[in-house]
Amino acid sequence: MNAEIINKEYKCLNYGFVRLVDMMGDDTAIVQAARTSYGKGTKSVNEDRNLIRYLMRNKHTSPFEMVEFKFHIKLPIFVARQWIRHRTANVNEYSGRYSEMPDEFYIPSSDNIKKQSINNKQARANEGFDNQYTSEIIQKISDTQNNVFQEYREFLDSGMAREIARINLPLSIYTEWYWKIDLHNLLHFLKLRLDKHSQYEIRVYAEIIADILKQCVPFTWEAFEDYILNAVYFSVNELKILKNLINPNYKITDNDYTEAGLGTTEKKEFIDKLSFL
Questions:
Q1: Which among 27, 42, 198, 219 would be 20 to 30 A from 102, CA to CA?
Q2: pLDDT in tens, 176-208
Q3: Which residue, of 150, 168, 186, is where some domain finishes?
């Protein structure tokens, strides 16, 4: 365990952070678990690395479940609601019933205030607003947060129960939780949340966690980058088209996509994959 990483606070967004509180196991624990399954195995550092790469490449995931990480994370509630969709972790969250909520809200920077994407119903576009309107948006967000929190304080001062006083607080207010997860499921989380299509605000946290893993399980992270994170997979229908591309003079036509059974969305995804080649 790298003592310098444990309890180090990595800042995220304006008030958030990620802290690695504890961990069980490392690259060595993975190969140890694998050798229990495979019998007597290799033992040099290089052979340990090769075994981890074999496991990752062939999706033998159970040895990676032997390693666990426990994080203390502070994040806006709207990010937490995305995060909690990964239902493979143990979570204990700050309670607004037992404790007063902090006067800490997320306000996006001007660079992150964008228009709605036309092609992606759940994402923002690259296009933003003019500087004046963007400034007005930020000011309105801040004013609303301040007004609502002032009302929250007034409710508490009147003697209202905390569990009722909190209900008007916006999704931009910060919460905290302890989040414990095994390495296999953590890598799956990062595969999704490091993707360029993932929402910026949760991607910031994923990037910090990725940096922590690079230091804690370097062989595993290297294999994950090579075989999962930066890899491209093709469906059987996409492979029908790729076979034609063996010929460098072949030009793909719309008829190729139709014959291969690719619809409009699949066609776009396929073209995006080809940009990696």
A1: 198
A2: 999 999 999 999 999 999 999 899 999 999 999
A3: 168
